[in-house]
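notes to self, project folder thing:

trying the whole complex as one job this time. last attempt i did each chain seperately and stitching them together was a nightmare. two parts in total, labels are on each line so i dont mix them up again. if this works i'll redo the older ones the same way
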Amino acid sequence: MSYINKPKFKHPQMQANDIGLTRREYEGTLTTLCGGCGHDSISAAIIQAAADMSLEPHRVAKISGIGCSSKIPSYFLSKAHGFNSVHGRMPSVATGANIANKELYYIGISGDGDSASIGLGQFCHIVRRRINMLYIVANNGTYGLTKGQLSATADLGSKTKSGEESQFDNIDMATLAIELGASFVARSFSGDKKQLIPLIQAGLTHKGFAFIDVISPCVTFNNTDFSTHGYKNTWENHVALSGVDFVPMREEITTSYAPGKEKEITLHDGSVVHLHKTGNNYDPTDKENALHHINEHKKQGKIATGLLYINQSTSDLHELQETVDKPLNSLSNQELCPGSEALNDINNTFR
Amino acid sequence: MKPTDISDPNYFHKVVDCQWACPAHTPVPEYIRLIAEKRYTDAYMINWHSNVFPGILGRTCDRPCEPACRRGRVEEEPVAICRLKRVAADYKSDIADHLPQIPKEKNGRHIALIGGGPASLTVARDLMPLGYEITLFEKDKLSGGAMRTQIPRFRLPGEVLDEELNYILQMGVNCRFGEEITSMRAILDEGYDAIFVGTGAPLGKWLDLPGHEEAKDNIHTGIEWLASVAFEHISSIGKNVLVLGGGNTAMDCCRTSKRIGGEQVSVVVRSGFDEMKASPWEIEDAMNEDIPILNFHVPKRYITENGKLVAMEFEKVRKEIDADGKRRLVPTGEEPAILACDDVLCAIGQENSFPWIERDLGIEFDQWEVPVLNKTTFQSTHEKVFFGGDAALGPDNIITAVAHGHDAAVSIHMLCEKQDISKRPNPLTNLSSQKMGIHQWSYDNDISADFRFAVPHADKQETLNDINIEVELGFDEQLAFNETMRCLNCDVQTVFTDKLCIECDACVDICPTDCISFTQNQDEPDLRKNLLAPAENEEQDLYVSDKLLTGRIMAKNEDLCLHCGLCAERCPTNAWDMHKYLFNTAKAENACQS
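result (full assembly):
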């Protein structure tokens, strides 16, 4: 870790966003992760995304589990709410928080150990339950905090720094999320912020469960030439299924693309995701097609990235459960305790 | 863009804005760090080698370094470089052991220096340690030139001046003071191996207006009047004084007047206040002494009564920009201003003057009577005659004169060694990593966010009553330390090794001022627009790498880099490292080494 704090001086031309904050005001404390860790780029991408969207930091809740990945929330949006929870149990805490206050933006940060091993069950259920949140897995294919053992997302044949080869097939978190009914699934790479930032913005805006699997190399324990999660392999083999741009709802859409060259997806609040074609005619609204593309790329040793799948017609948990409109903390005594007559009415429905 | 060639000695030199702007290229951040460590003597010697007069310049320099200071681009105000230099001089210990040894056995060459100001003394300083015999001619009875005659003692105490002049004179310079040279031919006939002319720009300009003849006893030229005050030939002035002109000499004239009898002292300038040539801090000091500055007043005539000056008439004007964008002063049509005065000081400029150089000696002069020179070697059209300081290129400042002196000394040494003086010796450079531990550097990268500290002043009334009391007290040690912590250490360079880079973005993410981008290579104008933050200051370079693994390049905008070293701290592969770049111009002792 570094010994000094990041100097407060900033680029003199740095602009404030719509709510008067510059990007620097979305930062957190100085990172204590290894220099070069992909996770720091994820923090930087979240900071940029939140600043560009003019998110009010106090309207964001960041929740994590245990692991290098789960330290990330310290390093962005220091004015947001945060909960560094138990190993693999971030989904439970996020679910609870989301039930209690549906009006916040929820960013869950987890890692491949936290979500694909100890927390795999929790992960499956939060996808099933359609919590309206952005769930990011910082995926480095290794247990970095315990010095580099193979994790459940390590690809078959990939080797640890000490040479141990993975004998098992990997758990593909993106495929799993699609299968389990996630309505927004993307994959990206910490080194490619041009792609990652709009995906984070789209994921935060998407109503429903949004999942981004971010290949985030462990520079200390899993960045060798024979690791499939290192910088070199990821730079060489990640293939964007389509280019992504995010246009927030309040902005006028000024860019125009040649017809047929791009696809627009309008999110529920009016924001638009632009997908530029990159050769193949990829349709992210077709589940089968998405799974097919991911697997085809994998067979060739490639990593399919970008917005893999989106479905805007599903309802989130609050809609399904018909929960109260307001955050629970804003309910009045009268609403919480409507009196004996109301109780009698309820009881009568069971008679 | 092509990859940056960091082996070019000027590349990293330019990044050290203060040193690049200094005519003598003093290694500023290096001595500021030494002051922070209380190594005042070492800090002083770094200055002494570069600019020869640290104590004098620490009080009087025009400070071209400060407007250049990077701190002024990321914050409000530059580091108080000049006054930190004074700190080194104020708190140093005896430097006798640090001064160069002067060979007892001379090398048989004899050089004449004409004029005892900063340029000549610098030549003496550089050549004496090499065994030269040097004779210094000075028309006044004391050396120092403009440093003695044009800078009042309340800005530069006599003992500070004498101390630094003596370091050089005591090397064994033959001093022929009080001897005005009237013929260059005679000097040439004395058979010197080279002659250096550092006679300054000794001729003050007059303002010849109606009434001048009658009033001339009370009209003085600024520099000559200041010299007379310095040599105590003049010790009083009338109660009402008008100082004409807006340069530093005018500021010294008005403040001096205030101390020797002037009660109503005003500065009057033709153009606007913001167009004045004086340094902002000198204007501020004059205004702090309650001296009004009247702008847009064009002098028209001297008004006399009974053969004595009583007032001056001024036409009031305003500034207009005409269609060609040219600024003009247009009369406002108001009544002329009549300002009462007992004395007028004309500080409207000064000129070179070489009536003593015969024009048939092969020393050519141009149409403005300025010697024709090679601006690198300072050699005139006569092989053995060199010029420096104000005498060479017209009125400038002390630090420029010092720089000329160093260059002329190199030329003289090379000439005497029968070398081609146009082939200048290379600067002395050193680039070395500052890494001490995983995240530890040999320099303090935790820079202070404090604003510039003000130098304490002596009691105003007391200083106005005595011309010899120095106004500025200088920083005390604690203030000096606090000010040193504002220095960004721009000489500690970010050095990038493209082969080591894995494009993890760690440096991009940590950089506080968004200096670093990884992008597709483009032509410079496009690249400047398409960086993470646009690089609009074209005076500052882009540091561009060769192609990286992904085909992109690293482009760093040098403009706003804080040299905090965080890019190198976060870099997992040492592709970034912090290297200290020491740059010293070659002096005479470094020439003729091969």
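what i see at first glance: Chain A has a mean pLDDT of 92.
need to look closer tmrw
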